[in-house]
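Long-time lurker, first post. I've been practising inverse folding by hand and with some scripts of my own, and I keep getting stuck on stretches where the structure tokens seem ambiguous. Below is the full token string for one chain I'm working on. Before anyone asks, I'm not after the true native sequence, just a reasonable design that respects the backbone. If someone could post their per-position residues I'd love to compare against what I wrote down in my notebook.
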């Protein structure tokens, strides 16, 4: 992800999430050496993005988003694989994420990528309030 892409990514975020990150949040992430944010392109158009914060040997996946018209094309799978590969190159041994309990498609994607459920964070999400499934891949 580059600074030039941040405006379009923030717009995509706003289209897909009830509590979207701001342009500034993405810009801060792009500039932070502890963050890793990737984009996916198809036919010259931004199709998706994913990001992770790295602390020591752990990666916290914060965002995975694919535009509606590009879903079903394995872009989310490719983004997760690229995050994992680049994370391992930076010393990450364990990957964590939270996902809405009701988001069965995302949970299925993560399970296919090797993530396992390890707990619940009560009322983690807002708008609407919902628990998060905590998932991990080691």
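-- Answer (accepted) --
I ran through it position by position. Result:
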């Amino acid at each position: 992800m580059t600074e030039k892409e941040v405006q379009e990514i923030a717009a995509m975020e706003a289209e897909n999430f009830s509590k979207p990150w701001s342009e500034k949040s993405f810009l801060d992430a792009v500039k932070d050496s502890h963050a890793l944010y990737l984009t996916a392109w198809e036919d010259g158009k931004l199709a998706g993005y994913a990001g992770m914060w790295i602390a020591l040997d752990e990666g916290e996946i914060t965002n995975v988003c694919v535009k509606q018209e590009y879903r079903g094309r394995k872009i989310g799978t490719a983004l997760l694989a690229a995050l994992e590969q680049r994370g391992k190159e930076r010393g990450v041994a364990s990957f964590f994420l939270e996902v809405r309990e009701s988001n069965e498609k995302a949970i299925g994607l993560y399970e296919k990528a090797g993530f396992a459920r390890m707990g619940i964070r009560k009322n983690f999400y807002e708008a609407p309030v919902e628990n998060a499934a905590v998932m991990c891949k080691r």
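A couple of notes from the structure itself: The helical segments are 6-16, 23-31, 75-89, 104-112. The mean pLDDT is 96. Happy to go over any region you disagree with.
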